[in-house]
Design goal:
- It is a single chain.
- This protein is mostly helical.
- 70% of the residues lie in helices and 0% in strands.
- The protein has one helix spanning 2-44.
C-alpha cells in the first residue's frame, strides 16, 4: 500500500508542476499581448499635433 501512496503523491506533484507551467505560459501570453497593444497605441499617437509640448520648462523653487 505504500507504493500506492508514493504513486499518488508523484501524480499529484506532477499535476501541480503542470498547473504552474500552464499558468506561467498564460501569464506570458497575456503580457506579450498587452505589450503589443501598448506599442500599437503609442505608435498611433499623432506626434505632429503635439506642437509646443515640452518646449517650455517652468521651475518653481
Amino acid at each position: 500500500m505504500d507504493f500506492m501512496n508514493i504513486a499518488a503523491m508523484s501524480v499529484g506533484m506532477h499535476q501541480q508542476q503542470l498547473d504552474i507551467q500552464v499558468g506561467t505560459s498564460v501569464m506570458k501570453m497575456a503580457m506579450e499581448t498587452s505589450e503589443t497593444a501598448v506599442t500599437d497605441m503609442l505608435e498611433s499617437i499623432d506626434v505632429s499635433s503635439l506642437t509646443g509640448v515640452g518646449a517650455n520648462l517652468d521651475i518653481l523653487a
